[in-house]
Structures are given as C-alpha cells and as structure tokens.
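Complex 407.
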Amino acid sequence: MKQFDYPSWALDTLLVHSSKLSHNTRNSGKPTVEPIYTSTTYLHTNADALDQAFSGRLPSGEPGYVYGRQGNPNAQTLEEVMALAEGGTGAVVFSSGMAAIHASLMAAGLAPGAKILVAQDLYGTTIGLLRTAFVPVGIDMILYNLCDPNVSEIIRTEQPDVIFVETLSNPLAKVIDVDAISTAAHEVGAISIVDSTFTTPYLLQPILHGFDLVVHSATKYLGGHGDTTAGVVISARNNLVEQLRTYATILGAMLGPFDSYLITRGLKTLSLRMERHCNNALRVAHFLQEHPAVERVHYPGLPGHPQHELATRLLRQQRYGGLLAFELKEQTREAAYRFLDKLQLCLPATTLGDVYSEVSYPPLSSHRNLTAGERQKFGITDGCIRLSVGIENAEDIIHDLDQALKS
Ligand SMILES: *Cc1c(COP(=O)(O)O)cnc(C)c1O
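Predicted structure with pyridoxal-5'-phosphate bound:
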C-alpha cells in the first residue's frame, strides 16, 4: 500500500481514513483468531494486481478480493473448512439455508422443462421454494416417499434431471438410503442433492457416498448456538462450485464476515457437541419409550426403529443424531399444548440443533399448512412432538420431560 502523509490532513479527512493508522500488520504479531474483515472493498498495489483479483485468484494462488458481494476472507475460511469436512472439491457459503438450497437447485440446472424428484417429507420451506419459484416457470416436480425400499426403481422409472433428498426426515427421523439413491441417480444421469442439516459431516459425508451436492442450514448444528442464520453448499465437482459462486454473487446471497466468523467458531466444537447431542438423544429415547404417557418414539438409534440397521450402516461413530419425535398416548392438540406449556427447561422453539433442548409441535409449526388428512398420510398424528435434544445434563432433560408428561 502507498504511504500517506495523514498528519497533514484536516480532521474530517483524518476521521474518514482512520484505518490507515492500523498497526495490525503481520509484522506486529499474527493473531491466532482470524480478524473479522468488515471491508466491502479491497485495494490492490496497482491496476494490474486489481485486474488479477477480479478473476478471484492472484498469480500466487491466493484468493483475490475486490468487493464484498463476491466474497470475503472470513467466508473463504469457512468454505475451505466445510469443503474439507465433507470431502468436496469446494464450497460456497450463503446468507441462509434457503439461499443455499436455491443456489444448489440453480447450479444443478433446474431450468424450464427439467424434472425434479423430491422426497415427499422434505423441509416445508424447500417444497414451498420449489412450488413458488420453480414449478410456475415449467419445472416438473414429483414427490415420492424416497425411504421406500424400491427407491432405485422409482428413480429409473421417473428419469429425473435432479434429485433432492434429506438425510433424515422431519419430524419422524426416517433414514434415506444415500447409496441406493446416488447409484440410481448416476445411472439415469441425474444431479443428486442432499440436505444434510440433521446429520452434519460428523455423522454422514454424503459426497463419499456418491452425492453431487451437499446442503446445510448452518443455522442449526454447524453454528450450534442459535445466534447466526447461514447456509452452505459443498460440491463434489469444480464446475458446480463455479456455478454456485456465480449464483451467490449475482443473487447477492453471500454470507457476511461476522456470520462467517460465528459459524467457523461454532464448527470448532461441532464434534464435541454432536457427541453429546447423540448420547443424550439415545438416553432420552430410551426414557420416553418406557414412559406410560408415550405411545411411540421415532429415533433411528432404537433397535425397534424400522431403519435401525440402515442407520447403523450409514451413520458414522455408531451414533444416530440429536433429533427424535414421539407420540403422546393422548393423541390430541389439547394434550400436546398442555405438555408444551408445562416444560421448564426445554424451549418451545421451531428451530433445532442448538446447544439447548428445543421442542416443537409439527401440527402447529413445520406442518401447519397441511390438512389433518395430509399429516396423517405422513404419519404425523395430533400427539406428535419433535425434540431436538440439547447438550445439557441428560438427567435434567429427562426430569423436565417427565414432569411435563405427568400433567
Ligand atoms: C432450517 C432448515 C432449512 C432452512 O434453513 P434456514 O437457515 O432457516 O434458511 C433447510 N433444511 C432443513 C433440514 C432445515 O432444518
């Protein structure tokens, strides 16, 4: 950078240019924590270097920054960590999970005339995105129960261009056979996308199972503290990374430096948190299964779960995630409300994956726009409660559930 003669400037000029006084150069000690780069604009030594930076890479191989909407160093750090964590060739971060899902669909080539096959029990807003932004412009959306053992046959018959699934379904924690789906997707030439929010790379790395794109709402387990909204897409192929980057830039969906920093910070404890979430969830599942006020528990870690064996084969660490659902013996909205209102520790919250335990009632939250009949079809009864088990002491969680169930 050029040297400026700042002491001769007038006060108004000096205040505008205060950052030139910064002594935080590498020579004065490299910080162990990456600084948060709030700058929207980056300066280069000369016009030639600026020209290089516009291409995104400097001749040295280092990333080049020009303008905030095209990326920032904190986002780049998060992207590198996530690409490594998922075994991808690259990653792009977004301002929310939904922005990441939107970009993944665009990058997969979901254009007019294309056909997308999706799991029928996808996150409601993802179905909403497809119905609102893609179906009206001529995209053919087909919904199926993709936990069906005949999933390969369904894919071969439908011949979709894109397949979109979630690793675990919401709220019943049904497990998808990622190997069968990616194999059939390759056979028919479909791009496969998986929303891996519920499992995180700690439990499953879908690219190693043949998936093309992996999406996360980083708002959930990756950030983990309920203080950041963010999304990320990891790609198995370089050309898809380029597409994702283009959409992030032209749609203005890039993740800002503060939020990138918070997610990167959250990731430092992801393994520890996931270990605790999973251990606690298994204990809570066993407790609920024995409880007289509970009809049924849906948790893939229980030997009675219809996909327990599949989950054991696919999920790493012999662990089964932090999410479970259960049905109250009294299958009514009144009983569910009574239970929710009695909780003292568990938060009545629609989100999941935070350090604290969170309970939601799907007929009131995620599945409120379905009719009672549609919910019944998906197996969601009026007594269905979803629990995102936090990292508190398991005994305290169990005690809270017990006293609320006794009401
Ligand atoms: C929360 C969530 C999303 C949406 O993510 P946002 O960060 O809220 O935009 C997508 N998929 C799943 C599975 C989620 O739980």
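The first strand starts at residue 90 and ends at 94.
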